[in-house]
């Protein structure tokens, strides 16, 4: 794993570094330290389970934002083949924060669309930190309608802190672009599978988030607002983001309990950034299972179920006591 890690990961990283140092020392000095290394490995495994199996919502948000976490193009490269990226909204420009194109998962042809962040400063500036402009959402819906025309199922990856709120984006109709996508995606007559792979921030996430199956990676989050934004509004103190994260019920398990998502896709212990290949393998299995199940359904049944799915979200009832 690269980088200094998150604050709560530091005891793990320190122990991992110590193990690596002992391995190098054993090799260079020809001294047998295998028993000590084995003991530290057992200690490391125990420590990982203690920390990663008891994460707070705020810690999961931090993992969802980890700079080494796999992004849309990483998953495309690992689990898909024959990816042909398509560009532009045919109205203004091409938005690098939103990638889309046709690909194959094994022998299943799909249209894949997703937010894309950058790995360094230059790429983040090019990708606008994964925050799409209106042209990004217009590109996405243009290509989703193209997929519908050729009866190709759709897979959308959500990973954004939110839609870009700049003046230019607002002048070009940011809110209208997202609202248009919500309406149009509700009536697209091919299967749509949504996966929250990292951050799922507000309308920026929902703009490509209407589908028949909504899945979330284990350490992703999906929320109407970021924890920092919520804390700033409720307590006028962004430092209370950890309290806000707990109150927002934004983790994958919270979302599953509330009926917002249909499935949690398991990640390797510690997060997808620790073993992207293993995370991608789980993601691929989920996508193929869901696409296969949806492919058996007639178009009118898919549309009816999709409509009802979103109508049911947020419905509350009263508990009556005898």
Describe the structure.
With 322 residues, the protein is an alpha/beta fold. The protein has 2 domains: 7-54; 61-312, Alpha-Beta Complex (2-enoyl-CoA Hydratase, Chain A, domain 1). It contains 14 helices and 8 strands. The chain has helices at 10-29, 34-52, 57-64, 72-79, 121-127, 134-149, 167-171, 174-185, 202-206, 227-234, 241-248, 252-257, 276-295, 299-312, and strands at residues 81-85, 98-105, 108-115, 154-160, 192-201, 213-217, 221-223, 263-265. Strands 1, 2, 3, 4, 5, 6, 7 and 8 form an 8-stranded mixed sheet that branches. Helix 1 runs antiparallel to helix 2 and helix 10 crosses helix 11. The longest helix is centred in the first third of the chain and has 20 residues, at 10-29. The radius of gyration is 21 Å and the shape is globular. The model has no long low-confidence stretch (mean pLDDT 93).
Overall 3D form: globular
Order of helices and strands: HHHHEEEHHEHHEHEEHHHEHH
Beta strands, count? 8
CATH architecture of the largest domain: Alpha-Beta Complex
Percent helix, as a range, is: 40-55%
Tell me about the biggest sheet? 8 strands, mixed
Number of domains: 2
- The CATH superfamily of the largest domain is 2-enoyl-CoA Hydratase, Chain A, domain 1
Strand content: 15-25%
Low-confidence stretches: none
Give the N-to-C terminal Cα separation: 56 Å
Q: What would the CATH topology of the largest domain be?
A: 2-enoyl-CoA Hydratase, Chain A, domain 1
Determine the mean pLDDT.
Answer: 93
- Describe the oligomeric state of these chains in a short phrase: single chain
How many individual helices?
A: 14
CATH class of the largest domain: Alpha Beta
The structural class is alpha/beta
Rg, rounded, reads 21 Å
């Amino acid at each position: 794993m690269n980088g200094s890690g998150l604050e709560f990961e530091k005891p793990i990283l320190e122990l991992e570094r110590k193990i690596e140092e002992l391995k190098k020392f054993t090799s260079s000095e020809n001294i047998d330290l295998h028993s000590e290394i084995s003991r530290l490995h057992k200690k490391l495994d125990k420590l990982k389970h203690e920390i990663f199996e008891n994460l707070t919502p705020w810690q999961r948000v931090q993992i969802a934002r980890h700079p080494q976490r796999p992004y849309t193009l990483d998953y495309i490269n690992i689990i898909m083949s024959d990816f042909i990226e398509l560009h532009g909204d045919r109205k203004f420009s091409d938005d690098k924060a939103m990638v889309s194109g046709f690909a194959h998962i094994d022998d299943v042809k799909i249209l894949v669309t997703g937010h894309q962040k950058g790995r360094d400063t230059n790429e983040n500036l090019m990708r606008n930190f994964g925050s799409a402009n209106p042209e990004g959402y217009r590109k996405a819906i243009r290509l989703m309608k193209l997929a519908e025309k050729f009866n190709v199922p759709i897979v959308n990856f959500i990973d954004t802190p939110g839609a870009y709120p700049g003046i230019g984006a607002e002048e070009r109709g940011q809110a209208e672009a997202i609202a248009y996508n919500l309406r149009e995606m509700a009536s697209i007559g091919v299967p749509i599978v949504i996966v929250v792979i990292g951050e799922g921030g507000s309308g920026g996430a929902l703009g490509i988030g209407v589908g028949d199956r909504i899945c979330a990676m284990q350490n992703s989050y999906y929320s109407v607002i970021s924890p920092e934004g919520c804390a700033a509004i409720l307590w006028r103190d962004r430092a209370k983001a950890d309290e806000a994260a707990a109150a927002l019920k934004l983790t994958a398990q919270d979302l599953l309990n509330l009926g917002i998502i249909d499935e949690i896709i398991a990640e390797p212990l510690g997060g997808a950034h620790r073993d992207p290949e293993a995370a991608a393998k789980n993601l691929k299995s989920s996508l193929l299972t869901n696409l296969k199940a949806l492919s058996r359904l007639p178009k009118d049944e898919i549309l009816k179920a999709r409509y009802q799915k979103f109508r049911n979200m947020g419905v509350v009832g009263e508990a009556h006591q005898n």
